[in-house]
Design goal:
The chain is an alpha+beta fold. The chain contains two helices and four strands, in the order E-E-E-H-H-E. A four-stranded antiparallel beta sheet has the order 3-1-2-4. Strand 1 and strand 2 form a beta hairpin. The N and C termini lie far apart (about 60 Å). About 15% of the residues are buried.
């Protein structure tokens, strides 16, 4: 029986990005020494868990396999509002 690997989630010091990595130390995250990455969570590499930190968990898993890390914003993405969408300011 093999152990399931863990994904280590780090939060940048300015709270604008999550860094997900397979390395418990977080040393492979970009700017590991200057970004001030702080440990935040440890999760299994399942899509449900990865989806907590990104809107595209499949891309997170691919990045973890190919690069060993993935970066994700902590704040949501603002999508433009269509004129015909209910609830828009410019609704007819």
């Amino acid at each position: 029986m093999t152990d399931t690997p863990s994904v280590y989630v780090f939060l940048s010091s300015d709270h604008t990005a999550f860094g997900l990595t397979m390395a418990a130390s977080g040393d492979n995250l970009p700017c590991a020494k200057t970004a001030g990455w702080k440990p935040y969570d440890v999760i299994p590499p399942c899509l449900n868990y990865l989806g907590r930190y990104s809107h595209n968990p499949g891309a997170v898993r691919a990045d973890l396999i190919l690069r060993g890390y993935h970066l994700a914003r902590t704040r949501g993405t603002i999508l433009p509002c269509r004129a015909s969408a209910p609830g828009c300011w410019n609704e007819p």
